[in-house]
């Protein structure tokens, strides 16, 4: 199996910092802005953003974790049932600016499902999407990120692997992995 490094630990850290500065520039009033990490992997990215926002300006943000498992269009099409993650949102998003955070934007199906799942918490004023990696030419839905760490060109036979130190890897890194052909 071949691997190609997309972002190393330093580049991921710089990307997280850039995201924070972009949020500060684009959202004057964080009283009307909430961040939602898409479970499970977007929640890890969101945690890093929240931590860095506190370091940069000691900004306190409303944030939560959103699971969209049961809103996916492929939920009943799998051989094994999907395992849901916990949704942790203790506020309404009615008339709020919502920033959805995820690690990799691939087909757009998770984001579409997340928008359906969000409605249970109110109708947002605006929804923005923040992703570490945008797999450019793989979209099934017309969904594009507002904040993007890196755009990559990938084939269907490849996948993007996001590794976090907090999950037992040596360091934070993002790889494009080529599946072995037999």
Plain-language structure description:
The protein has 182 residues and is of the alpha/beta class. The protein has one domain (2-18, 33-71, 85-178): Rossmann fold (3-Layer(aba) Sandwich). Helices cover 25% and strands 30% of the residues. A five-stranded parallel β-sheet has the order 3-2-4-5-6. The longest helix has 18 residues, at 9-26. It is globular. It starts with a strand and ends with a strand.
What is the topological layout?
Blueprint: E1 2-7, H1 9-26, E2 33-38, H2 41-57, E3 62-66, E4 97-105, H3 109-118, E5 126-135, E6 147-152, E7 158-163, E8 173-178
Parallel strand pairs: 2-3, 2-4, 4-5, 5-6
Antiparallel strand pairs: 1-8, 7-8
Helix pairs in contact: 1-2
Essential attributes:
single chain; 182 residues; Rossmann fold; five-stranded parallel β-sheet; three-stranded antiparallel β-sheet; 3 helices; glycosyltransferase activity
| Top CATH class | Alpha Beta
Based on CA inertia axes, which overall geometry fits?
globular
Overall tally of domains: 1
> Helicity, in percent?
10-25%
> What is the CATH architecture annotation?
3-Layer(aba) Sandwich
Secondary-structure-based class equals alpha/beta
Largest sheet: 5 strands, parallel
Determine Rg (CA atoms, Å): 16 Å
Distance between the termini: 11 Å
CATH topology: Rossmann fold
Strand content: 25-35%
* Number of helices, counting only DSSP H or I runs of 4 residues or more: 3
| Average pLDDT level | 90
Number of strands: 8
The stretches of 5 or more residues where confidence is low (pLDDT under 50) are none
Oligomer: single chain
Strand order, main sheet: write it out. 3-2-4-5-6
Order of helices and strands: EHEHEEHEEEE
